[in-house]
Structures are given as C-alpha cells and as structure tokens.
Amino acid sequence: MVKMAGLVGSPWLRIRVSPDFAPPLLRSRLASKPYLAHRRRRYLSASASSAPAQGEVRVRFAPSPTGNLHVGGARTALFNYLFARSKGGRFILRIEDTDLERSTRKSEEAMLHDLSWLGLDWDEGPGVGGDYGPYRQSERNFLYKQYAEKLLDSGAVYRCFCSNEELEQMKETAKRLQLPPVYTGKWATAPEKEIEEELVKGTPYTYRFRVPEEGTLKINDLIRGEVSWSLDTLGDFVIMRSNGQPVYNFCVTVDDATMRISHVIRAEEHLPNTLRQALIYNALGFPVPSFAHVSLILAPDRSKLSKRHGATSVGQFREMGYLPQAMVNYLALLGWGDGTENEFFTIDQLVEKFSIDRVNKSGAIFDPTKLRWMNGQHLRSLPLDELIEIFGDQWKRTGILVESEGTFVKDATELLKDGIDLITDADTALSNLLSYPVLSTLSSDEGKPIVQDKLSEVAASLISAYDSGELREALEEGHAGWQKWVKSFGKLLKRKGKSLFMPLRVLLTGKLHGPDMGGSIVLIYKAGICGAVNPQSGFVPLDERLKILREIDWDALNKGPDPQPESVATVAH
C-alpha cells in the first residue's frame, strides 16, 4: 500500500491521456483543439498523487436538511471541527439542500441549533457569511450551470438525448450479458448534425461526463490508506439532469473546489462517490483535496445505528438531559483515542490532542450505557454554582418547584447530585424525595423484617418526639441539630446503627433507600416551610407524614398484607 498522504499535502489527480486512442470522428478535431482531448478518450492510468497544499486548512461539514442531526453526522462535524482547530484552519458549514422535496428550513434551523449546542461554531456558513458563499446549495445553481457549460465546451461532458426507455433497455441488456451497467449509448460519439437536430426538436437531454474506458484511479485516504477503483466499471455518468438540476456528485465537487476545501472528512458511505468527484476535479482543473473517510457508528448488535436502537439524534439526547460537553467527549471517542487510557476530555483538550492518523478505520460501537455514565461524570465535575443553576431551571421548568434559585435549590442539589447522571434525572430524584410511599414500602417483602423489628414502638416514640416539638426544633438547626437529636433518640430506644437508622428512614422518608438520611429529612422539613415547592408536585409535608403514621394499623401489618389503600399515603396536599 502507498504511504498515507501527510496532513500538509494535498493529492492532485494526474491522468495521462493518449489522443491516438480517440475515435476517428474526433481525431482531426483533437489535432487543432488539444483541449478536446477530453472527448472520448482511453486512459492508460489515473491516480492521485501528493502535492503541496495551497493556503490554509479548510474543511467543511455539509449536512442535508431532510431530518434531524444524527449522532453519526455530529461526529463527522466534530472531527472536521477538531481537525480545523488543531491545524489553525477554517471550519465551514454548507447546507446541501438540493433535494427540494425533502429539504426544509425547519430541519436546517434544528441542525444549526444542535451544532451550536455542541459548541461546534463554524467560521463560514449560514448566519456567519464568508468569502466563498452562498453556503446553501439551492442558492448556488448559477455556479453549477457555469461549470457544466465549461465542461461541455471542453468536451469533458456531452449532451445525452437517451430516453428513460432506452436507458432501461441498456440496463437489461447488461444484466442479461452479466456486464457492468455502464452507459453504452450513441451520444458520446454522435455527429454534431444529429445533436443539432435533437436540439431543434427540443428533445430533453442530460449532461454526461466522459469516463476513461480503462485504467484505475487511486487515492491515499488519510484513514484507510490506498483506495483504488477500476474505471471500466463506471461508465459515463450524469452531472446535470434534463430538468436542469445538477446531480449530487457534481454539486459537491464544484462546491468543495470553489470553496477551496483542502480536506474532505466524511462518512465512509461517501467513499464510492470519490471516484466520480476526483474525475470532475481533474476535468475542471481543480486540485483534488485530501480525503478521509470515517467509519460508520454501529449499534451494540454491530448493525448500522438506526431509530430502532433508540435515540439517535442530537436533539433527542439534549431533551433526555445530556450535556453538550459529554456528547462531544463521547462522540470523539467513537473511533479516536489519544493513545492513553484517558477517556475524559474538554473540547479544548480534544483540539490539542486530535490527529486524523489516530482515527480508526473499523466501525465504532455506540454504547448508550457508557454515554449515560460519562454524562454523569461530566455533570458532577461542573462547578456547584453551575449545577445549582442547571437543576434549579430544570425543577422550575417541569413544575416541581415554583422558583429556580434559593437555599432550597442549593441544598437539594448538594444532597441529590451524586445520584444523578442526566439533567432529567434531577426530576426523578427530587420527586422521589418529596413523595411518601410508606405503606407500599412497609408491605413489601423487603420492608417486612423492619416492620417485625418492633417498628410500631419506634413510630410511637417518633410521633411523641414530633408532638413535643423536640424533633422540629432539631430540624430547625439543620444537619447538626438532626445528628444531636438522633443520638439522644437512639439512647432512649436503646438502638443504634442500622436498627436505628433504617426504621427512621422508612418512617420519615417512606423508603428503604435513598441519599443521606439526615440531609433528606432536613430537606423534607425545609420543603414544607420554604414555599419553593409547587403544591401540585405530590409533596407530602412532614406534618402529613406523621398523621399517616398515626393511622397505620400496625397489628394488621404484622399479620399480613396491608389492609389500607395506598392512596392514604399519596393523597395530594
């Protein structure tokens, strides 16, 4: 294999042409007009070789606004962004909206929002401008027509008047003879008189690109190494449809060339397009950029990641409560690594360490469990003030709280943050704390041993401590007051450790498990007096919890299933 091209090099397509092999009809014209050697020709070879790059590194991300930004597209954008920033180059955003039926501005706006949310700010493109615009393909038709005419004048393309029926017949014939389905029509070598006759009749025509009849084309992909294609299997291909609309490969080539793109970093599914694009580059006299084709992102079952595997778009992950920095970190690791065991990077660190030669050419597995875990690590590494703001906004937005800041928000964040991996988990964590499912807990299999350990006696003493004001006074003092009270309460009951703390947790929180018990009970008490909690949130205040405890039939609980309806413990207050 040929050594991969260096990052500062740019492959140029070099094609050796032999006019002697031209059809008789054209031979005389080639002698007087050498540029028409592009007309029907036979290539001895075609290859991309390395030449010095001109100017700065310029890369682009070119999504089609026909849906949401897929995580695969986001990773491609990220790799382009990191490559540009690491080389001091430019990151260009171009919208490929030539599919007029499927492209929408709504989809485009959503994609731009997702890229901005990820922190992938573009240097040129929609909303930013630049020297090489317009940056939407739908606004660049004048360029495509200009370059199509240039190719027609040079003889690199020709008008093809074949009907759809004729083309289908060619395909059927090739299939029957077990030959590649290449164009074999007459218009590649048709006399000018026949062409003029069709033009006069107004017969619809396409523009077809003249492909070498034999030889190979090679590129040195920055990720995959040498890639080659046999030219005799391609056939002359259409670059402009009969309705005047340019074909994808032609648009992309003209856009990349005129925007002076130096490196094309894109998904491996575009690798087959490189052959056509490289031929067009050469015919137009433009340098061929360096190519790097990134592997697909695979689902855990190693199939292509799709909607059937769950969330696949950046917008979905944002709505699910993921942080942009966690998404960027995780996406960067799908096929790339810095050669160490480190898995946690800020975007600035990624820029510093990123290199295209460390991108793996094999498929990367998308693991939602690892992404969630990584998000939790990033979430908990945020400064406390930032975390308080994030959780406070979330709790107010979802209606659990009526205010997004204050002492209660701060205390709730500090208490609950270690059990939260996603921003939306904060809702569940706080709602669980505010709820009081004590009856279902006591009647559960796990709760039975606690009930049978004379829980009714602990409940009676707890009710007494609350009625006397002793417990409320302790909670007013916060965590220190709670600890002091628990110690004296344990001595009173002659209990300590688990035999003390587990009954208190169940009686006061209604649950067997949860965050720090003291912090939980102090926060429950504050929730009842601070005014921050929405009355419609399902919160059961401490007063109501003690009321429920008074009404429990402990004898019935000790004997069998809970005789009371669960609604008693979850009534709205």
TrEMBL record:
Domain Glutamyl/glutaminyl-tRNA synthetase class Ib catalytic: 56-373
Keywords: Aminoacyl-tRNA synthetase, ATP-binding, Chloroplast, Ligase, Mitochondrion, Nucleotide-binding, Plastid, Protein biosynthesis, Transit peptide
UniProt main location, coarse: mitochondrion
PROSITE patterns with a match to the protein in the record: AA_TRNA_LIGASE_I
EC number in record: 6.1.1.17
Cellular component GO terms held in the UniProt record: chloroplast; mitochondrion
Molecular-function GO term, any one: ATP binding
Pfam families: tRNA-synt_1c
Cellular location(s): Mitochondrion; Plastid, Chloroplast
UniProt keyword annotation of ATP-binding present: yes
CDD domains noted in UniProt: GluRS_core
Enzyme type, top EC level: ligase
Catalytic activity: tRNA(Glu) + L-glutamate + ATP = L-glutamyl-tRNA(Glu) + AMP + diphosphate
Biological processes, Gene Ontology terms: glutamyl-tRNA aminoacylation; post-embryonic development; reproductive structure development
Free-text function comment from the UniProt entry: Catalyzes the attachment of glutamate to tRNA(Glu) in a two-step reaction: glutamate is first activated by ATP to form Glu-AMP and then transferred to the acceptor end of tRNA(Glu).
Membership in a protein family: Belongs to the class-I aminoacyl-tRNA synthetase family. Glutamate--tRNA ligase type 1 subfamily.
UniProt protein name: Glutamate--tRNA ligase, chloroplastic/mitochondrial
Species this protein is from: Ananas comosus (Pineapple)
Phylogenetic lineage: Eukaryota, Viridiplantae, Streptophyta, Embryophyta, Tracheophyta
Gene: LOC109724887
